[in-house]
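User: Hi! Is it possible to get a structure for several chains at once, not just one? Here's what I have:
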Amino acid sequence: MLSIVFFSASVNQLLRCASHMLRKKLPFLHSLLSPVSRHVGHLTGHQYDVIVVGGGHAGTEAAAAAARVGAETLLITQKIHTIGALSCNPSLGGVGKGQLVKEVDALDGLCGRAGDWAGIHFSILNRRKGPAVWGPRAQLDRQRYRDFIQSELLSTPRLTMVEGSVEELLVTEPNPEEPGHHRVTGIRLANGSHAISARSVVLTTGTFLSGSLFVGQTTSPGGRIGDAPSSAGLSHTLRERLGLRTGRLRTGTPPRIVKDSVDLSLAKLHLPDSHPTPFSFLNTHTHCKPEEQLPCYLTFTTPGVERVVRESLQLNCHIQQDTKGPRYCPSIESRVLRFPGRSHQVWLEPEGVTSDLLYPQGLSMTMPPDIQLRLIREIPPMRRAEIHTPGYGVQYDFVCPTQLSPALQVKSTQGLFLAGQINGTTGYEEAAAQGLWAGANAARSALSMPTVTLSRTESYIGVLIDDLVSRGVTEPYRMFTSRAEFRTSLRPDNADLRLTPKGRCFEEVGCVSSVRYQESLRVRNSLQDALTALQALFLSTSSWKKKLPSVPISETKSTLLTGLDLLQYNDVTFEMLASAFPESLSSFMEFAQRLKIEAVYKPHCDLNKKEIERIQREENMSLPQDIDYFSLPVSLSDEVREILDRVRPSTLGAATRLEGITPAAVVNLLNYVRVTEKKKETHRNQRQQEAQRDEELCANSASLPQ
Amino acid sequence: MAGFTQRLPPPRTALLRSITDPRSTEVLDRGLVLWFPAPRSFSGEDSVEFHIHGGPAVVTAVLQALGSVPGLRPAEAGEFTRRAFQAGKLGLTEVEGLGDLIHAETEAQRRQALRQMSGELGRLYQDWSDRLKRCLAHVEAFIDFSEDELIEDGVLNRVDVSVSDLQAEIERHLKDERRGERLRSGVQVVIAGATNAGKSSLLNKLCQRPAAIVSPIAGTTRDVVETALDLGGFPVLLSDTAGLRDSSDLVEREGVRRARERVEQADLTLVVVDSAHLPSEVDRAAAFLREHLRSVLPDTDRCLLVLNKADLLPEKQRQKLDTELRGVSGLPAVRLISCQTNEGLKAFLTVLHSSVKTLCGDPLFGAPTLTQARHRAHLQRCAAALAQYQRYRDTDLALAAEGVRLAVTSLGRITGRVGAEEILDIIFKDFCIGK
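Assistant: Yes, the chains can be modeled jointly so their relative placement is included. Here is the combined structure:
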């Protein structure tokens, strides 16, 4: 069943459609929205399993994942037609971020397949630095991306979309036995008193939570230009009713440039990969043909740019604020102020196949529009450029994510999940990853299944969530490969092997479709068979030399080598081995690149295993959430107690990674966990023994002569 | 404690008290009693020290009396230190240094242990660790940002230099020829030479007691005779061995085999020669000694040549040999002595002391040496991990960076920054002390 619900202040209109769309052929969306009138009252009183607030990268993944898990799901967004909009850069993936896209795809999320559909310029970054840190990336056609996401959501069973603004989050009164603990019961929409109840609510409000927009010296409430600001009611509920700690972050976006006004011959041409690599494990090729891809252009700032920034500082109130902005994607103002006298890169990126705009990556700015024009005209290819939409800055509230569990649920409020920028992250990929995980858990929680967590030892999603909930953020959080301790095991190429079975096998219901699950099994079995076949090729070095004359094999060692050993050589490819041993290997040609990577990384991954097991052991030692760290009868310094009390790590593993936690403190906590677990165990045993004794007594008394 | 000494002394003040058994009120000893109220004590808890007389009867009686007090039990091996560590009173290298201090049998060991506790070794490792972290940061930056941002091209080249410098330093540190470990377990000094040269007499002279049987009969010593001694503060394990000669006696042949085995394992060999057998001409004497050394030792790097029975030589020849043999190339340090008259013995002891000192490394000067086999293992892993960086530097930067990461983790295992549970298990297994 598919449904879409529209209602606005003037007309409450329900659009309902049932269609079976072909994934490969996107129909023109608006033709689907054949209106079916229905009063909004139908929603009132309706009990949903999951309500997702927000239709960005986090919200769409959350809604889709919740529905896949089996929950009746409602997605509420301010404008249906901006669902799946790329608010900032027209690109997806990159170093670290590409890994997240692959993982979201492995869990059957949307963004990987959307990227393959909408991509118009594919490249693997870090190509020469090793497959573990390859960064799959694509420039996107904005329109195609949005169309794909919307049509996917429309064809998702159990998912309803509605247009509206959430006024209030409905929660129960605090539980008298656990002060400060609430349970979510639903939401109330603005412009009416419609309360819609749900067992779980996922908030993905992006930059809209108390958001303000900045251009020059003017400030206006809002989260994105062209959209109405979200109601203050939501912030109020989070802060005042639930007592959640919030902080403030800022971000920004560059002006969009009219393509025809730019002299691209003065910029450096940057071509995409000649063979585009799809993000999704289900796709063998991208929608865009290799030869239809569009180029990007590289240019540089000049001393004139720095001059304009300096001259306009007093007119730029965003830059004067001390709110924390990202160090990794800074505005042009902070770039030239932090590194003066240098020339900074500016990428001119296409916005789409039919778009007549360019996106100047690296020129995020918040000065008044006339000065923005002066600034870009200091850059040679843009001497005569025209601005279509000026750049602007956004400041917004985020909820300190240490108040969340590793399932992204607010610890003090049963059923409330948060994902995306509201947790202090930046980036589409980070948002999508959290959205998927929060959505899956919101659904599980609503369906009375235990929530699930991903370890940082098995995925970048696990790294992202663990970093957020156990360390918190001080600036917008972005993923890097260096954040993953087990980077050589968490590669983009093996995300399906790592996550797809897990996404499928969480008890009876998972977030992975059976099509994808079957495909991942096929891949896993084929790879295993191929590795076995390679290991079965067991030859002396001289025989290998005869088989592969072009490879410099040292004959000094008289040892036998397997095909797997040979594949670890720099200059040996799987193709070479397959042509030498066609009978045993040629059937695996489809996996040639993956096998090469597996062979090279296998020894390193084997070494990682032991450390991974240790961390997983520590992660399995949970620390009670209601622990009073200040009165805990173990030897801990006041500073350590303060940190633990503030962060409340959910496991010993998370505590170990906190800054300021000494090894001695970890040992003491470990002892505490062990002692309390032992006590619990003894207590259980005692109770069992008592029960046994009681039973024996009963048995004895039964046998007593009456 | 009140039961033992009637009244609590003021904190941290040593007082002479009668120590009585609380059950029988019998006076067990008179000794010093010290009270350290928490948290200003070694382990951070309330502590008492009894300084009692060392006779086994007294010690046993006091321990039994303590054991009879409800709630008291003997500490497990390493428990005090573990508690001190848990109370945040000690860092990991300090804990290990303290273990050595408690085991310290000699003055030099005590000095090295003290030095480690004050964190000198910790500081060296910390410096390496800081430099490695910097290398890692640069490689990571190159991996995560170089495609988007302008990362200077020279970054990796500078990492290359740092990594190979660090690798060289760590390998040099590892090649300290076991000095630190020697200081903990004693320098192996072996006395070897032909039969009847006076090897056993030398052993007895050095340990100042008749540890070995001495007789004019060649082949008296048939097995290895070992004795531990303190040589100017350094622990020495001195072995006397059977005289080297071909023999038809099965027992003696086994003794000779063991002697040769000892010589191979020795840190320092004292080759004893009967001076009466030396040719009188200096050149020929030198040739004779060179030939003789070759029959005893594979190389002459670590040996001293002891010409015994100097009292049997005419005064003139003695002086000539003493002065002229010193500068001859191809010979180790040569000393003329007489175990009979003690002539030259003092000068020989000076040479021996300085050799032992070099082998141990003076704990107060120079680079801190390895005192724990555990450190050695982690440092070896660290150096191997840096080699991994070099191996993959040009083909796979992710695997190269993994090398630096492993190196950082390995060092962290010494300085106690990573993997707390695992390290503690290992340390406290190694760490059999009871304070």
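Chain A touches chain B at residues 94-96, 125-126, 128-133, 135, 342, 344-345, 480-482, 485, 487-488, 570, 600-601, 604, 611, 614, 618, 635, 637, 656, 662-668, 670-671 (CB under 8 Å). Residues 457 and 612 of chain A are 6 Å apart (CA to CA).

User: Great, thank you!
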